[in-house]
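Researcher: Here's the sequence for the chain we discussed earlier.
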Amino acid sequence: MRKPALYSRSVSLGVVAAPKSDLLAAASPLTNRASLGHRLLQASASPRVMWGAMSLLGVLLLASVLLRGPGGASGLTQKDIDAAVLRTLTTQNLPSVAARAADKIRPSVVRVVSLAKNKKGEDEEQGVGTGVVIVDKGVILTNLHVVQSAQSIRLVFADGSTSAASVVGAQPENDLAVLQAHTIPDDLSAATLRSTHDLRPGEQVVAVGFPFGIGPSVSSGVISGLGRSFRSPEGEQEISNLIQFDAAANPGNSGGPLVTMDGEVVGIVTGILNPTSHRTFVGIGFAVPIESAAGAAGLPPF
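Model: Thanks. This is the structure I predict for it:
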């Protein structure tokens, strides 16, 4: 039985790092402890930092016991311990929110290679795009234009394994195709999908894919607008209700995920706007909202 796609149960508006001065500012003990908890949660993406903080805490607790006086007075207070742990966390270089988002989505990103027979009858690469796993049984979303002229399709998963694939669904009006991998890695990870109903211009996003075949490559930016329309220079069909974004995208990013800072997919990258004849990024990209993309795969709505 096919495992259903994963949907986010909560919506995050992104994480904004607080200045160090705010973290260290004098406040009530309750505020200090809340700040400490917030920093500990942020540091959870960095095992090195967390282990360092835990080791420091262990040393401080041991010192507290050793310094306990004859009358039972403690040499260290909870305030001393909180301050020491906060100092460790705020002096470490934590991964950026964009890096953490990219790390979360990367296992679900797939290289999609379009193949055709050459004159010798051998498979030859004719184009590269990107796909994203939405069901861990090998169901993958990509752009229709990435695979529509392919005689065969090859997938390269995050672990380096490869598989042939078949087109099992399409939504031409949104330039979407659904692929089914023939061979599925044991640890294949499906992306988490997030509704776009409360997505706002200015929210940070990450695009992950294979621009010009290089990758997986990561770029970050913000949502620039919503409800946009786009017609590719060579296409006759206009696609509407698109997400506009300014994270860098180029040929090869097509079909890849547009991701929030929580690593959740809100769109499938489908095109870039360039007023010249060059197919390169000048600051405006478009993505199909994930509601339409998931619908192409026959998945239930949010």
